């Protein structure tokens, strides 16, 4: 005897169907929301994260590189200006990191650091003048802020011992 399901018994969706519909709606809403929000609301945070990576990479390379005379390599410094954050031009052939620039990323850099920051063999930031005198930097804490085109901002901090992190 064949079993027949009456039309009255099947009145709803199964639990699996409901879960699949909820998951699909969630995926669609996340995709649509990211398209509507746009990239500009994340630019400052992306620049901050990239800057932390760049600064740490420069710091690590400066800690492990000396030139033939035993001096620290001047190409392994961090350039900080209003329209550039990253390695200097002389490091282009030896450095894999890409600088954050206002022309490419539409980001403005502000902060209380001079144009060039060097790191000693212990990773501490300093500035060197023309006569070779080294002045320690960030004796309290240095803060560098990245401002995107829609005025979102995110900051990184460097302390006197060289710890580079996202500012709260």
Automatic annotation (TrEMBL):
GO cellular component, one term: type II protein secretion system complex
Membrane spanning residue stretches: 12-33
KW Membrane (keyword) present: yes
Entry keyword annotation includes Transmembrane: yes
GO biological process, one term: protein secretion by the type II secretion system
UniProt keywords, alphabetically: Membrane, Methylation, Transmembrane, Transmembrane helix
Protein name (Swiss-Prot/TrEMBL): MSHA biogenesis protein MshC
Protein species of origin: Photobacterium halotolerans
């Amino acid at each position: 005897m064949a079993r027949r399901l009456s039309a009255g018994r099947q009145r709803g969706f199964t639990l699996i169907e409901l879960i699949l519909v909820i998951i699909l709606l969630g995926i669609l809403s996340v995709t649509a929301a990211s398209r509507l929000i746009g990239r500009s609301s994340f630019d400052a945070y992306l620049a901050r994260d990239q800057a932390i990576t760049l600064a740490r990479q420069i710091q690590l390379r400066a800690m492990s590189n000396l030139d033939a005379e035993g001096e620290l390599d001047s190409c392994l410094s961090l350039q900080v200006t209003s329209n550039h954050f990253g390695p200097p031009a002389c490091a282009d052939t030896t450095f894999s990191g890409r600088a954050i620039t206002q022309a490419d990323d539409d980001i403005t850099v502000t902060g209380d650091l001079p144009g060039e920051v060097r790191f000693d063999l212990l990773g501490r930031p300093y500035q060197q003048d023309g006569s070779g005198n080294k002045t320690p930097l960030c004796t309290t804490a240095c803060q560098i802020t990245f401002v995107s085109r829609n005025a979102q901002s995110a900051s990184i901090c460097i302390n006197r011992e060289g710890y580079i992190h996202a500012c709260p």
